[in-house]
TrEMBL record:
GO terms for molecular function: hydrolase activity, acting on carbon-nitrogen (but not peptide) bonds. Residues 2-308 form the Amidohydrolase-related domain. This is Amidohydrolase family protein. Coiled coil: none annotated. InterPro entries: Amidohydro-rel, Metal-dep_hydrolase_composite, Metal_Hydrolase, MTA/SAH_deaminase. Keywords: Hydrolase.
Length: 364
């Protein structure tokens, strides 16, 4: 993240205490949520998605997530780490678990995030269970609010993805819920938001995320802008200024941190310093357009968080990046080797995801 110019991230998953320690060591501001859910999905045949429900409805994991969030409330904003509540997905969380989350968030003034309207299977599963869209159901149980973030919020009524009657955008707008759009990771699978400008015209708050590899806000801004223009068949939508705001001031406001995402008196000294003499940064008449449409990660010179440089001289503070890269490759190879034990059909990784040039397999 620091190498790609991010000064604040929102991270969800497991091992939150470890993630928090690492963020503090390298100097990365982070909102972290320990994930929990009522059950998990699986496929028995590669066609159907089924669910395996936990006996305790995810309550023990919820208590762990709440404990982490309360230990990192950070009301002053001076700490690097702030906790939030993270029920994983709308289709893997019961109404009771989500209501517990909402009540705890209200009581302790915490943000909460879940995944909803993120896939065909989830959308149709929720309409099958409840005769309600994922967004309608979340509204019914009182989960949508100003403190709620929804990733990814793409499969909504009124879009070609669902061709379903309703007013999901209106529900999101009236409740003050924020949609976190991750354009690159979905666009590479042929899925886009319909559309970024349309959501905003309906009054829906939208900010940008990165999701999985590569965790680059430069790519997120660029793809958010370009796919919006392509979808709308217009050049005057998805403007550089707007996607830049979605990655900075708008995201900071959603996190209820008016001291982040901007350069002004009273704001935290979280700054990205750019090289202005590279081939991708020159010529530059409008630096915002230059950054959104042309800049590369190599154009980032230094990154400051809280008045201290976390990235400079092509290195992240406190990391042995060569060692970390080797460890990442080795860990990935262990996952690939063990892939058959996780796949419903016991396929190898090469069978499941063939190489771009399979003949290379015989030579590596």
């Amino acid at each position: 993240h620091l190498r790609t110019g991010a000064t604040t991230v929102m991270q969800m998953g497991v091992e939150s205490d470890y993630v928090a320690r690492m963020c503090e060591e390298v100097g990365l501001r982070a909102f972290i949520g320990e994930s929990y859910r009522s059950g998990e999905w699986f496929t028995p045949d590669g066609k159907n998605v089924e669910y395996r429900w936990f006996e305790d409805d995810g309550r023990a994991a919820f208590e762990g997530g709440l404990d982490f969030a309360l230990r990192h409330r950070n009301p002053s904003g001076d700490a690097l780490v702030t906790g939030f509540l993270n029920p994983s997905q709308v289709d893997t969380c019961s109404a009771d678990l989500l209501r517990r989350t909402r009540d705890a968030a209200d009581e302790h003034d915490l943000l909460m995030q879940t995944h909803a309207a993120q896939s065909y299977s989830e959308f149709h599963e929720m309409t099958r269970r409840h005769a309600r869209t994922p967004i309608e159901w979340l509204d019914d149980i009182g989960f949508l609010s100003e403190r709620t973030l929804i990733g990814h919020g793409l499969f909504l009524t009124g879009t070609s993805w669902t061709n379903f009657h309703g007013d999901d955008l209106g529900l999101l707008a009236r409740s003050g819920t924020t949609v976190v759009y991750n354009p690159w990771v979905f666009a590479r699978n042929g899925i886009i938001m319909e559309s970024y400008d349309s959501y905003q015209k309906h009054g829906v708050k939208v900010c940008l995320g990165t999701d999985t590899t590569t965790q680059s806000m430069l790519l997120s801004m660029r793809w958010a802008s370009i796919v919006t223009k392509v979808f709308e068949h217009r050049a005057d939508v998805g403007e550089a200024r707007d996607v830049f705001n979605a990655a900075t001031v708008r995201a900071a406001d959603v996190l209820r941190r008016p001291d982040l995402g901007r350069i002004e008196v009273g704001a935290k000294a979280d700054l990205v310093f750019w090289k202005t003499d590279t081939l991708t940064m020159v010529p530059s008449r409008d630096p915002i357009r230059t950054i959104v449409y042309y800049a590369e990660h190599s154009d980032i010179d230094r990154v400051m968080v809280g008045g201290r440089f976390s990235y400079e001289n092509n290195a992240v503070r406190g990391l042995d990046e060569a060692s970390d890269r080797r460890a990442l490759q080795e860990a990935s190879e262990r996952v690939w080797e063990g892939w058959p034990s996780h796949d419903w059909a016991s396929r190898t990784m090469d069978e499941h995801v063939p190489l771009s040039y399979p003949e290379f397999e015989t030579r590596r």
